[in-house]
Amino acid sequence: RYQVGSGGLVTISTPNILQGTYRFKNGARYIGEFFENKKHGQGIFMYPDGSKYEGEWVADQRHGNGVYYYMNGDTYTGEWLSHYRHGQGTYLYAETGSKYVGGWVNGQQEGAAELIHLNHRYQGKFVNGNPIGVGKYVFDIGCEQHGEYTHLDQVNNIIQTIPNVRKLSKSGQPIQVWSASLITGTVYFKSPTALVCAFVSCRVNKNLAWLLYCASPAT
What we know:
219 residues; mainly beta; 2 helices
């Protein structure tokens, strides 16, 4: 069993754990362990919207390790803290088959991570669900593209020159700019239209840049 300590999760032993099934008036159902009339230990919770969580609970909250199956087919497998995705985890996007593997903080993708697509992957740092700073794209054909992601507000002069990107920036979607600095291995470009992210190509200081807005994980 787990509880929150100064260093994160710590293991404790809990006596008097009961097993049972509880059906809620809204159609939800919990099957698993209880302690003092709260979901506590291993359990499965089926939500009214069709989503489901299988894993560890502490005092009625998803806490420890578990798998969440979202109603759109996405899944998250990993660590939880006080009901939030927190720690290390993998989020699989059902529609594209892409997956995020790495750190989470309070439900958001954050820290060192890898975003894996069908024919390539991105390795770098994420903050509040968006890639930021130095990273690299690794392509299955054997080449790597190194560069850096920059926030939208730092490249407004670029945005204003591209009509389609202006529309994206006004839509409220998070947009980052990728500036490539080095390409190693075999150079090969393929249309990214099948990816979970939408890209628009442009030139910045003689380097290829991609304007990116990413699909967000389900809440």
